[in-house]
Design goal:
about 75% helix; MFS_trans_sf; Eqnu_transpt; transmembrane
Length: about 425
């Protein structure tokens, strides 16, 4: 007869590990996004000829980085539903972390390698594509895994994801504040940091099966995965996975997570990173790192963390999707801040305080509603289907990111 008593999470070690795993999944995206000043410094330079400006090539790095990070996330999140039946969880998660580590090491090495701008742009975009491809497999696998545990662990996992951005923003501030005479040294240290973070994430994952509490919940997934591959393939052929999409509750949560990220990625960072301070002589060097990235990531993390204390509205409430849709107001509000250069829209909120306040509300609502959506979805299916529901929600999360990234091009153009 199987075991009926549930072990305890001693020292909250499983919670800590899933917090670290959440942190590790979004470190790649956040370290590239927060490093915009470094990339723009290497790309958007003015060329001179006989003392006059002849070329100022605009690479639109913000937009392309956002798009080429979210498209592979969408593609490989979809492919992950096939991969989880053919490739073991250990290979998917540990293998993805190893490749992400190698790609970040490449990025760190390129800091010291002189390179023609077009080639540097191409190599960087290819690196972003592949890092986010492996990141999608990693994130989808971990969302499926955490869906097997009690609900609070989903919130803990997403809280860790929220802190990844804050971690990256603080690292960039330290790099900017460095007075090192070698301008490359801070950038090199900045990109070495996620390498260490990825290693810690990998070791944390490898330690997870040794914990009794994790083994109790996750071992069932391993046996199911190992023993019923043929049955899973037949289910896939019959498209049974879409049973979850046809459920009204899952549709609501899928819509909510898609809409939240569509709004968020449509203006952040493609629009918000171009906002200029009203006091350029005082702190222009730090303005975007603090008021755009640090403010966003701290409040996004706060929003995700709040869901571990209380969850409102409930998953059955009709108010929940209404509040999610109401976030669309942040798109025009941020576009009417002091975004420069601009062509069409006026500036209604020129002051730094206005931009910072809008960013704080924008980000805390993003983190809160995303975390609620992702936490609620696995509760709406049978326990044995929680992993599939978690993986399916990850697809809609990626869909929202991709739609938002695509929208960022026209929205930035009409500012």
């Amino acid at each position: 007869m199987g075991r009926t008593d549930t072990p305890q999470d001693r020292g909250c070690l499983v919670g800590i590990i899933f917090f670290i795993l959440g942190l590790g999944t979004l470190l790649p995206w956040n370290f590239f996004m927060t490093a915009l000043p470094y990339f723009q410094g290497r790309l958007n330079t003015t060329e001179w000829s006989n003392g006059t400006v002849v070329v100022h090539k605009e690479y639109y790095f913000n937009n392309w980085m956002t798009l080429l990070s979210q498209l592979p996330l969408l593609l490989f999140t979809l492919l992950n539903s096939f991969l989880y039946q053919r490739i073991s969880e250990m290979v998917r998660i540990a293998g993805s972390l190893v490749f992400i580590l190698l790609l970040f090491l490449l990025t760190a090495v390129l800091v010291k390698v002189p390179m023609e701008k077009d080639r540097f742009f191409s190599v960087t975009m290819a690196t972003i594509w592949f890092i986010n491809s492996f990141g999608a497999v990693l994130q989808g696998s971990l969302f499926g895994l955490v869906g097997l545990l009690p609900q609070k662990y989903s919130a803990i996992f997403m809280s860790g994801q929220g802190l990844a951005g804050t971690f990256a923003a603080v690292a960039m501030l330290l790099a900017i504040a460095s007075n090192d005479t070698d301008s490359e040294a801070p950038a090199l240290g900045y990109f070495i940091t996620p390498c260490v973070g990825t290693l810690v994430t990998l070791f944390s994952y490898l330690f997870l099966p040794r914990l009794e509490f994790a083994e109790f919940y996750l071992d069932r997934s391993g046996k199911y995965e190992a023993g019923t591959t043929d049955e899973l393939l037949k289910d896939l052929v019959r498209m049974n996975v879409f049973f979850y999409v046809s459920s009204l509750q899952i549709w609501v949560m899928a819509f909510c997570v898609t809409f939240v990220f569509t709004v968020t990625l449509s203006v952040f960072p493609a629009v918000t990173a171009d906002v200029k301070t009203a006091f350029p002589e005082k702190w222009e060097r730090y303005f975007i790192s603090v008021c755009c990235f640090l403010i966003f990531n701290i409040n996004d993390w706060i929003g995700r963390t709040i869901t571990t204390l209380f969850q409102w509205p409930s998953k059955e409430s009709r108010l929940f999707p209404i509040l999610v849709v109401s976030r669309v107001v942040f798109m025009p509000l941020l576009m009417l801040c002091n975004v420069q250069p601009r062509s069409f829209l006026p500036v209604y909120f020129p002051h730094d305080a206005a931009f910072t306040t809008i960013m704080a509300l924008f980000s805390v609502s993003s983190g809160y509603f995303v975390c609620l959506s992702m936490s609620y979805a696995p509760q709406m299916v049978e326990p044995k289907d929680a992993e599939t529901a978690g993986a399916l929600m990850t697809f809609f999360l990626a869909l929202g990111l991709s739609i938002g990234a695509a929208l960022s091009f026209p929205l930035r153009a009409i500012v």
